[in-house]
Amino acid sequence: MPEVLILYHAKKPEAVRRAQETARWLRAHGYGVVLTDQQTASTWSQLPDPNIALILTLGGDGTLLTGALLGAPAGVPILGVHLGRFGFIAQAEPEEIQSALERWREGNYTIQERLMVRASIENDPKPVYALNEVALLRQADAPMLNFTIRINNLWLTTYPADGSLVATPTGSTAYALSVGAPVVHPQTEALILAPISPHTLGARPLVLPPSAQIAITVTCEATDRGSSEVGSGQPSRPPEEKVTSDGFGKALLSADGRRHLPLELGQTVQITSAPFRTKLLSFNEGEFFQKLRERLLWGVRVNE
Question: What is the rounded (10 degree) CA torsion for 276, 281, 287, 288?
Fold first, then answer.
């Protein structure tokens, strides 16, 4: 018997109510149901049952991100129901749940495959995956940090900043949007590299091919920046990387803003495209453009 995994946001009463209603509807139509809250599901390392054919998420994009981490490695598609604020990834409104499930049962839908990213921390064998972005961040009590960027083993630049992130096209309307990166159609094959609050005018977002291998080393130069040769005006070589003596706990890696890992200064994080994709059920080819108009207010005169 095919099963549907329903993930719901436990602190949203409407999500809880609709999860229970949908579970009853699915069982009445011959489907097995695994019903759980998003917080519980976030502790799982894989899907609880190999017979799960669909993941239904009820909440915001955060709930869907949890479903993506479970469904993508197994190739299980996701139907996201918008019960949050922006809901850029969700494909259905609450009142459309049953009609969307009917279309799924009939095969009347398309699958959007969304690029994901994989991050590997130096000396840590367990990689981290994200659908939106991986961000390397300065902690609040840390001094200015330097981020040295290498692409395919070639040095690109080093800049002082609060952080640096690598986003997917899906994530271009999330954290990347707030740091000035471009909005990229979610089905585009690309990675987006962007600084976070850089202390320089020369650091800009960069769109890279999905095959790019990005390495970011986090360091702290308390007295000597060493980012360029004096008087040259242009950096000619990677700076000598200096690490503060307290080393640990001044930086962290954040995956989709939900999983946080401490970084030791001097460590390098390797970021690439993930070997699997998030599969989203889609019923409207123009939904992304509609979301830009309605949720980012594109074309709206806010002074009227």
Answer: -10
